[in-house]
Request: fold
Amino acid sequence: MELLQQLINGLSLGSIYALLALGYTMVYGIIQLINFAHGDIYMIGAFTGFYVATKLHLSFLPTMIIAMIVSAVLGIVIEKVAYKPLRKSPRITLLITAIGVSLLLENGMRFIVGPTPQSFPSLIESSKINIGSLQVTNIQLITLGVSLLLVVLLQFIVYKTKVGKAMRAASFDIEAASLMGINVNNTISFTFALGSALAGAAGVLVALAWTTIDPYMGMMPGIKAFVAAVLGGIGVIPGALIGGLFMGVAETLTKAYVSTRLSDAIAFSILIIILLIKPSGLLGKITREKV
Reply:
């Protein structure tokens, strides 16, 4: 029963990593960019939720929607200002720029709100649900439910809408998509907005569960979500979901049965093992690049 309890905890945490990993994998799928600022957009989403809840006294659902909108707008601004001018530059240039944007968001937020962690308001009163000897909190159920709903909505957008078709075409061949009349710039901006909105939702869900937020809260979850995206096969949406859930369960089981201090080391060990055994990830396919 204890193992089942830890699996439930791990799935709740993994759903957060999955939402973040989806943002990484969608952006990479189109422009082959690892957006290392993505974890900090998650942090901005949490702080947006904090200020909306404390200043406007809104409930959970409006708070999360506003956090998603603000995160989406921020994602578009970052793409337009920092990445679009460098789109034809070497990938290392974009990578360095992404790290610079990440540091800017972290330290900019630290300058605005200070280094002291903030206590997130209790938008939903926490309660425990007993199923035999298992204990599941309503916050865990909400986290899993909202994450699943957002993933289903994302799948619908990607596979059932015109803009989703444009995203898939651009990810397959961005130049050919442009020649076929697809507005590639708008498609890329929409992809950033979509991924950033998911990160904003994840920020609010985490703040709801952990109750404290700080300007550097996105660093480690962002890196772990990147590991999850690589694990599942970066550029593959179902892979990001599987990788995120796997990472959450692995971290929870490590903390429960091995050591809390080794949980981060295990995460990066998984990345190294996957890169050695199957560099393309669990669901990824090896592609050959013409030179």
Observations:
- The beta strands are 118-119, 128-131, 134-137, 212-213.
- The radius of gyration is 19 Å.
- The chain has one domain: 14-217.
